[in-house]
Known about the structure:
alpha+beta; Immunoglobulin-like; 4 domains; six-stranded antiparallel beta sheet; 24 strands; disordered N terminus
Amino acid sequence: MKNRKVSPKRKFQFFLTFIILIFFSFCKNPSLENPCDSNQAGYYEILLSKIFSGNTSNHCGANINKVFTPIFSPSPGHYLEPNFISITTFTPGASIYITTDGSTPNINSTPYLSPSSIWRLAGQRIRAIAIKVGMEDSAIAEGTYSILPLKTGQTISFAIGDDASIASGLNVNYDAPKADTNFPNDYTTFDQSTGILWKTCSEGLSGPTCAINSPGVTTGSFATLNTSCLALNSANSGKGYAGFTSWRLPTMKELLSTNDASKTSVTIFNQSALPATVNFAYWASTPYPPNLSDAWYLDYSNSNSYATTNSNPYHGRCVASLPPIETLTYQDNGDGTVEDNATGLTWQKCSYGQNNDSSCSLPANALDWISAITYCNGLTLGGRVWKLPNRNELSSLHDYTKAVGPKIDQTFFPNTVTSAGGYYWTSTTNAPGTTSAWYVNFTTTFNNIYDVHPKSNTLYVRCVSR
């Protein structure tokens, strides 16, 4: 009979098992050892011995032939700084599958392939299972993350309690434009705060500073720019622009993440990271349900955002990262406050002037901008500290899926104003004209998300607390 060679890997396993057994034999007290007590070394000595020897029989109720439960890192919870979610399992060779709608994951669910930003998955009930052929599926792990909205960029304060004086939100942090290793003429820019991967240049431009006019569209209708982004997936003989085949127009949430409230023109956060941005309108992919022949855009010339005829000749900048999951989820705290599971912010359920009851009865009252700030600063509802929300905080409540106003979750924010001119103040001042401030529009009587009003005008108020 021929002698069979023992592989180096097998030799290492035998050696490691021997060392572990020797270690535990010196550490344990035989008179006190209980092999079924997970607090005793002997319990793990037996488990490790079985694992390394290939023995998959149960030990004291522990199923060794079951895949280890997935682990979320960092731990689920609320975050004040950007972070990325990793999911792992200790079982070698096991694959992880996830759902984000609370349903039970299985082998047909979305495979987990790489970390994702908390910003992208905030508020979603993430459930994960690890599966390996020949072993029993793991138990299901789950977690929910929340993270603050991005800072608006405003740094000059115009009143105690306004946007800049509090400076709430995530810091905005872009990498510099990067040339792809395999396709050195293709440049991308990564947003560390949101996890969005941008094509560095607007469509029709190329190069590290976007100074080259490439043979493509520079402006066009929504359909033209959408097609231009999708065409990037066929670039480089089908390998995709910069090696990515997931290019598309950004959603409104993604596009608005670039909007800097401190600028008076070209209101993009980082013109070095996203150079040669045109001082005009850029298309977004998010539908406008009140009129599907219109489409959303962000105008960098004045920082506002509207829906308009989708045939207008606007610009476009494409993204390749997975789109954010924008299902809005809230929790009623039962004390007149509502928690946003995505941002971790706590909101005043009822508008100023309404009764603090389940239906927010009575009409809302309007205030000028300074009075709105003063009111929120003095609010003591639920024993919390309150403020007037900034532009990014308040617009995070905007529900893009609704065809009829108010474009906010009426279950959690009943009796929100829907009449024409029923806008809500933010604490963010208009940089080009500081006697005005930004409002958010939840009605469908006007086709915008936000714009500005003179601070002396009276608008409606809903306060926020961290």
